[in-house]
Amino acid sequence: MPDPIDVLAIGNALVDVITTNDAAFLADHAIPKGTMRLIAADEAERLYAIMGAGREISGGSAANSVAGVAALGGRPGFVGRVAADQLGEVFAHDIRAAGVAFDVPPMVDGPPTGRCLIVVTPDGDRTMSTYLGACQELSAADIDDAAVAAAKVLYLEGYLWDPPLPRAAMRRAIEIARAAETKVAFTLSDVFCVESHRDDFRSLLDGHVDILFGNENEVCSLYQTHDLDAAMAELAAHATITVVTRSDKGAVVIAGGERITVPAEPVARVVDTTGAGDLFAGGFLHGMAQGRPLADCGRIGGIAAAEIISHYGARSEVDLKALVAARLG
Amino acid sequence: MPDPIDVLAIGNALVDVITTNDAAFLADHAIPKGTMRLIAADEAERLYAIMGAGREISGGSAANSVAGVAALGGRPGFVGRVAADQLGEVFAHDIRAAGVAFDVPPMVDGPPTGRCLIVVTPDGDRTMSTYLGACQELSAADIDDAAVAAAKVLYLEGYLWDPPLPRAAMRRAIEIARAAETKVAFTLSDVFCVESHRDDFRSLLDGHVDILFGNENEVCSLYQTHDLDAAMAELAAHATITVVTRSDKGAVVIAGGERITVPAEPVARVVDTTGAGDLFAGGFLHGMAQGRPLADCGRIGGIAAAEIISHYGARSEVDLKALVAARLG
Q: B132 contacts in A (CB within 8 Å)?
């Protein structure tokens, strides 16, 4: 029997389809430049057909995080839904190749595999059109209760709180984790998620989630303030450990009365910030699963994030485990 | 050119598949009796296969409402998404046959048509398993701005606020209606919808919605109270006209400082309460579109609801227009 999974993530199983094009292309097809928007199946097919040749790599926020856990030497698993189609095969192959256990069978009936169609313009901007497809079909039946109970950390992606069926599945997974010794971690994902589900996200802090991730904008939106200190004071009133990521200013870990400042790791040149938050969370959770102190968890997150932004794409290109060992011991 | 649409609804395009079976069938397949739950495509296929022969009729809450508008002599339209499959044809045929304009083309790519699998047990209980499918693919691109602007009333279903893409489409439709002279009506749909989107639903009352429908449980949930009077006092503080349906106690229309009590219409025998709220809303909105006073709108809603619950199914079986004329003049 293989070792049990230590960090089990539930998230969107998306394939990133990345092409380069100019701003006129976006304007011609009425795609708002520099934004992320959700699209329907037919628009996804139409856009995919006209985008031209692209690179297809498995993506998704929590999936990127657990790929980071694997690169750091952990034993992660991923739960998300793909269809029995070409993009579904791409996703399953890539995430397994990254060292992540992925056992949810592809769907035969239902919508195609979700994809994030990314147009990179010459100014470096990324314009994303996301079709959720099979991701929206994740239900409680897809969650292996025993795997949740056996994991050290269950990690949930706020993006997946948006569609109703996966939302119910994640509520159920939280219940299973609470009844076991499994820590529950949650990322706010995006300001639009916080705006749509502020009540739910706040109530998760009342005894349902042990670790919360968010960037400055997300935690400010959670408490409808522009004052980061005010938001952090609200967060400190909860038993939940909150990790506030602050881009080149590092991160702050709020654990009850304690605030731990995590310095930003040095980066020679920022090439592509995609996946920075995902890898920070992955590194942090790997540290937690290893029983490291919170300050070390923050450092591991920072090291993984710094590596990711030094090149294109959300998958590490060096031996992350060795890098952390060299920097942190 | 045909007459313009007076009541334009945006909602779930669902086909109801109704079978009878015993409680043991539900227990054998771990389906919680008497509830409504969302299921994924593969579970929908599995359940459909084992349910046995059933009746298939077009359903969906707002779709039922506009079928009522048509039966009352109005000129309604419906916006919702189906797939190019057999159930999609059933939905489109039925709703057009009911006299509702329905022009959204069926989807070729993407998930199958949504369906509500209903098992009626010998005790009269209805156990519903809903697969949203193509309903979740409704996007802003499917909404005809000119039709929204030309309508007298835009009617939105709270159920459709749950999936993210239709939620964004409805926000956009509200903007178009506000910029025109189109009244916006919204139904809270279900307590679970209110619980998931309480913040959003409350903020809709701040200048976005002209008419709100809800039953006692839904409006109490909106303000997290068990006291109906307290909830109605909160509602009265908004410019939105609220219609609180109270089953056999009739309804209350709250319009600013004014409260209009609508008596329940007499019903010889209640056979099946399915669609009562839907038909009440349809009747009320038909009255609004005809420029009737609020008290009359309530009566028309009550008459349509009373007819529906006197027989099986959510489509009226008598000449509703004549019935209203006879009762109300």
A: 164-165
